[in-house]
Each structure stands twice: as structure tokens, then as C-alpha cells.
Specification:
It is built from 22 helices and 15 strands. The relative contact order is 0.06. It starts with a helix and ends with a helix. Helix 2 packs antiparallel against helix 4, helix 6 crosses helix 15 (333-378) and helix 15 runs antiparallel to helix 17. The protein has helices spanning 2-25, 29-53, 58-63, 65-82, 88-120, 123-138, 154-159, 168-176, 194-201, 260-264, 268-279, 286-292, 304-308, 313-323, 333-378, 380-383, 395-405, 407-419, 459-463, 490-506, 542-562, 581-590, and strands at residues 208-216, 222-228, 234-238, 241-242, 427-430, 433-440, 444-449, 454-458, 467-469, 477-485, 513-522, 526-534, 567-569, 575-576, 579-580. The protein is elongated, with a radius of gyration of 36 Å. It is 53% helix and 14% strand. Residues 412-472 form the Mechanosensitive ion channel MscS domain.
């Protein structure tokens, strides 16, 4: 598409240049003028479309506006040749001033576009774009041979429209190497032998073992039991079709049964009960598993080795790095499901951010064009001799009225376009309240509170208040205050610091550093201990934030108990009727000093 647009643009530029020369050498000026006019109006539009499509530098995009004025000058000269008019030179003076202002305006517009695009190509959004090709591969929209050559950009992501969510169950089965026997979407038309069963289940024929049982039950339904080569799965095949009564993770030896004749006498419901019983032999007990309603094909783990069965090494490493974000240990289905859910959310946020970017770009272009128009009208003293009455507007009055009207929009414009403190999907804190950015407009921004409420806040108001942005923050620290007894030995506090240091080394992927210090004494009978926990990532994703924090609190309580340090965790003092409840609790715990 870009190549064809470039060829078309260069062709139109050449045709316009040829039409100009043809106009000067032609004897029939009116006919040749039509060619100059048509190519002079069409060529700049096509040229601007080409500039927007190509990935080129900001200075080339800005200076490309000169071509537009080249076309305008050629049309003015052609008009003057056909019918000379007064103030011919003045038109070029005005056009030169407008060109200088327009090029400066174009630089501001392109600079704002580059800043916005750079923010979309960084941080979490950058990782989303890198991972998108694997999502497209799983959705069947990209071939495996194209993974090495496909390069996802903001533009290509936007052109596909609203992103399709990735199914975590299906992806987990593929990436963990697990298969789901019995997940059949069609019924067989006839009885199946071993090879046909393998084809129908999606297994290789060598994976299906020999018949264990082949019999007809009392109800007249033919039952075939097959075992896979790796002894991991066990299915029941019926005459009506393939139906998985229960998938057994470990095939039972049936040693408690006398022989196969005993099995032949069992009814269907008893066979289902046996399958259900042995399913939980090495995983969970039946009661716990029934609550969680696990699918046995979701009980594996995703590793680089399992991904290498489906992808090349570099792709497997890149996928694992993305899906293991915020996870300490193996990537089991629960963690994978949360990560894919968050990935789908971030993909939606990226699309919303691009949508906001497109909208603001249009507003920015219109707004800057309006400023150019006002500046041109403000040059009315230079146009007085052209005898156009409605342009005889005093320059100071026009500028004063224009700036007064655009004061509020201009404030919001500068705040959103150039300050740009957040994007759609960012978690921000304003005056102590946490919000998620949903929609950004020129005049206001729509935010969502933690309880689901949507609120709309003026951008002018936001520009005058401090906004904390979690997504754009680096590794963040958590501050925990713990009240301990005043008679706690210094040696125990030093030992606690050593344990924190060892914990940070053990969980270096979660906590780069953990330190603690005594910061004060309260009421002469207790000390305030503050613990600084540095998280490996920011607090944009609340799931990982609270997961890491909960893990640390468990270790903290364990260490305090192990060192026999009497403690009372608190964040702020609690008082009832002027009496400190914390003081009373602490006295009950360790007595008064």
C-alpha cells in the first residue's frame, strides 16, 4: 500500500510539473490552465497522505509542506498570466508569511504526534505490541513462518480494529503441551477402531494404545476403553459418539478388581464412578477438586521447554518472559489466566489510546488551522489595499477577542497534547483517590473509580492538581509501619534486617531490596519500626501488587514471631472517645513499662 501510494504521489508531482511547463509553451492557455489547476489541487492532498503513511523523520514531514506552496504559487502565476491583477507582488509577500507560520505550526503538530506515538511505543504498550504477533498466530491470523518477519506497529495494530481476546484455556493447552481428550465438536457416524479414534481425538496414531476392554454392557451400549501411550489420560467411547465421562490423570491398574469379567458386569454409572474416583488419586481429593471444577488438561505448567515444542527458541523465551510477568515459580493455569486476562485488557487499552490519539490529532490539526486563519486575518493592514471590506478588522481587537474565547480550550489543549500526564488504561491517583483512565477528550477526561463509578473531570481542573501515574513509575516502594515493644534488643532488629536481606536475595524477581529502621518512640513504651519494601515493578496491575505484598506480610509475621518480637502493626493511630485504642491493645499484649 505504501509503495503504490508513493508511486502515485511521485507521478502526480511529475504531471503537475509537466503541466506548468506545458502551460507556458502552450498557445491555448485556458485548456492548459485546467491541467495546472487540477494537478495543483490533487497533488498536495495525495502527497500529504503519503507523508502520513511513511515512517520518516519529523523535519522531512515538516518541510514537505513546501510542496503545497509550490502548487499554490504555480496556480497564482498561471492566473496572473491569463488575467493580470493588481497587488500581484503583495500576494507573494502574504503567502511567504503564511508559509513561515504554517511550517512552524506543522512542526508543533508533528512534534506533538511524535511525543504521543513515542509514549504508545514504550513501557507496557511496547510489550503488548511485541506480544501481538503471537496472539495473531494463536488466533490463526498469522502463519508460523511469518513470526520472524512480522513487525507489529501502532499503525498495523489500529488498522485491524478492536482486538480479539485471546482464549486462556486453549492457549494454555497448546503452550503447556497438554491435550484435552474428549473435547469433540462433532459426532462420529460409525464405530471407531483404534486408529480412527486417534484421528478423531487429534492424537497421533502411535499415542493410542491397545484396547483394555471391549464389551457390551447390560444397557446394550458398546463401551470401548483406550489408554494413551504415556498413561496420562483415559477416555470412554460410546456407540452414540465419543463422550468423556471423566478423564483420568493416572490410569488405574484396576488391581482391586478380580478380572475384566468383573468390569464387564458393571453398569455405566458404576464405570463413571470408578473413573471419577481414580481421577483424583494423585492430584486433589474429590471434594476440593469439585469446588474448583478443574479441567485435567489445565493442570500442567508452561515452561520454555514446553513452548519450544511449538515455537523456536527466541520466540519461546520471549513468550515465557511475557506470560510469567509477576509470577514467582512455574506458570500454572491460574497465573496464566490472570496474565492473559490482563494482557487482553492492556490490548484494549492500547486500542483506546490510539483512538484517543487519532481524535486529538484531528482536533490539534483543526485548532492549529484556526490559529493560522486568525493570524492571516490579523494581517489585515497589509490587505487594506485589496479593497476587501470584511477583512478591515483591527488586529489588536481580533487577537484579544480570539484569545479570550480560546483561553479554556487552549489550557486543556496544552495540558493534554504537550503535558500528556496519562493515557487510556493508566492507573492514576488524584488527591488520594485511585482511578483508571477510560477516555481522554480535549475538554474533559473520563475516569473509573475502584467501585466501578465513572466520573468526568475537566482537564482545566486536572492541570491544576498533582496527578500520580502508576504505569509511568519505575519500581515502587511500599512503606509498612510496625509498632514493637520498647525493650526489643537491638540485636533482634539487626537479625530482622539480615532476614530481610536474605528474603530479597531469595525473591529477587519480586523485591530488589528490603530495609527497616526504627524511626521513633511513642509514649515511652513502644517503638515505631518502618519497613521499606521495593517492588520489582510499579503498581499499575493491582493483582501483582497485592500478591507480592501479601507474600511479604506472611514472611514479616513469620520473622517477628520467630524472633519473639512483640508487635502491633498499624498505619494510623486509632482513637475512640479520645482514648488511643492502640495503646490499650499494646498494654494488654506486653504490659506497661
Amino acid at each position: 500500500m505504501e509503495m503504490y501510494l508513493t508511486i502515485l504521489t511521485l507521478t502526480l508531482v511529475a504531471l503537475h510539473t509537466v503541466s506548468v511547463f506545458a502551460f507556458y509553451i502552450s498557445k491555448i492557455k485556458t485548456v492548459s490552465f485546467c491541467g495546472v489547476l487540477i494537478f495543483g489541487l490533487v497533488s498536495p492532498y495525495v502527497f500529504s497522505c503519503m507523508i502520513n503513511e511513511l515512517e520518516i523523520g519529523i523535519y522531512f514531514r515538516v518541510l514537505s509542506r513546501i510542496f503545497k506552496y509550490y502548487c499554490i504559487i504555480s496556480i497564482i502565476v498561471a492566473i496572473n498570466v491569463i488575467k493580470p491583477f493588481e497587488h500581484y507582488i503583495m500576494c507573494f509577500v502574504i503567502l511567504a508569511l503564511v508559509a513561515i507560520i504554517d511550517i512552524y505550526r506543522a512542526y508543533m503538530v508533528e512534534y506533538a504526534k511524535d511525543m504521543y506515538r513515542a509514549r504508545l511505543d514504550s513501557g507496557v504498550m511496547k510489550n503488548v505490541l511485541k506480544f501481538e504477533k503471537y496472539v495473531l498466530f494463536e488466533l490463526g491470523m498469522l502463519k508460523q513462518s511469518e513470526l520472524d518477519t512480522h513487525h507489529e506497529t501502532v499503525k498495523t495494530f489500529w488498522k485491524r480494529g478492536q482486538p480479539v481476546s485471546l482464549d486462556p484455556e486453549m492457549s494454555f493447552r497448546r503452550w503447556s503441551g497438554k491435550k484435552r481428550p474428549g473435547q469433540i465438536r462433532r459426532e462420529p457416524l460409525k464405530d471407531l477402531n483404534r486408529d480412527e479414534l486417534a484421528d478423531f481425538l487429534g492424537f497421533d496414531r502411535n499415542e493410542i494404545g491397545e484396547n483394555i476392554i471391549d464389551e457390551t454392557s447390560e444397557s446394550g451400549t458398546e463401551q470401548l476403553f483406550y489408554r494413551t501411550r504415556n498413561d496420562n489420560e483415559f477416555d470412554i467411547v460410546s456407540h452414540q459418539g465419543i463422550r468423556m465421562l471423566k478423564t483420568i490423570t493416572k490410569v488405574p491398574t484396576l488391581s482391586h478388581l478380580e478380572n475384566f469379567k468383573t468390569v464387564k458386569q458393571l453398569p455405566n454409572d458404576e464405570l463413571a464412578r470408578i473413573a471419577k474416583k481414580y481421577r483424583f488419586r494423585t492430584i486433589f481429593d474429590e471434594q476440593q477438586h469439585s469446588k474448583k471444577n478443574y479441567d485435567p488438561s489445565l493442570l500442567g505448567t508452561i515452561t520454555v521447554q514446553s513452548l519450544r515444542k511449538r515455537f523456536e527458541v527466541q520466540h519461546a523465551i520471549e513468550i515465557y518472559r511475557m506470560i510469567s510477568h509477576g509470577i514467582h515459580g512455574d506458570v500454572v493455569y491460574d497465573n496464566f489466566r490472570w496474565n492473559i486476562r490482563q494482557l487482553n485488557i492492556e490490548r484494549g487499552h492500547l486500542h483506546s489510546s490510539i483512538d484517543d490519539y487519532k481524535h486529538l490529532k484531528k482536533v490539534l490539526t483543526t485548532f492549529s488551522a484556526l490559529i493560522i486563519l486568525v493570524i492571516i486575518l490579523s494581517l489585515s493592514p497589509l490587505l487594506l489595499k485589496m479593497k476587501i471590506p470584511y477583512l478591515r478588522i483591527p488586529t489588536p481587537m481580533l487577537l484579544f477577542g480570539f484569545l479570550a474565547i480560546l483561553k479554556d480550550p487552549l489550557t486543556s489543549f496544552i495540558f493534554i497534547i504537550y503535558s500528556h500526564p496519562f493515557d487510556s488504561g493508566d492507573r492514576i491517583v488524584i488527591r488520594g483517590d485511585t482511578h483508571m483512565v477510560q477516555k481522554i477528550n480535549l475538554y474533559n477526561t473520563t475516569l473509573q473509580k475502584w467501585n466501578g463509578e465513572l466520573i468526568s473531570i475537566s482537564n482545566k481542573w486536572l492541570a491544576n492538581h498533582i496527578t500520580k501515574n502508576y504505569r509511568r513509575s519505575e519500581a515502587q516502594k511500599w512503606e509498612i509501619f510496625v509498632i514493637i515493644a520498647s525493650n526489643t534488643p537491638v540485636s533482634k532488629i539487626d537479625e530482622l534486617k539480615k532476614k530481610f536481606k536474605s528474603l530479597a536475595k531469595k525473591h529477587r524477581d519480586d523485591y530488589p531490596s528490603i530495609t527497616c529502621n526504627v524511626v521513633g518512640i511513642e509514649n515511652s513504651n513502644k517503638m515505631k519500626l518502618v519497613v521499606y519494601v521495593t517492588h520489582s515493578a510499579n503498581f499499575q496491575i493491582g493483582l501483582y501488587r497485592w500478591k507480592r505484598h501479601t507474600l511479604f506480610m506472611q514472611y514479616l509475621i513469620e520473622y517477628l514471631t520467630e524472633l519473639n518480637i512483640t508487635y502491633l502493626p498499624m498505619d494510623t493511630p486509632v482513637k475512640v472517645d479520645g482514648v488511643s485504642v492502640n495503646d490499650e491493645l499494646f498494654m494488654d499484649m506486653c504490659g506497661t513499662n
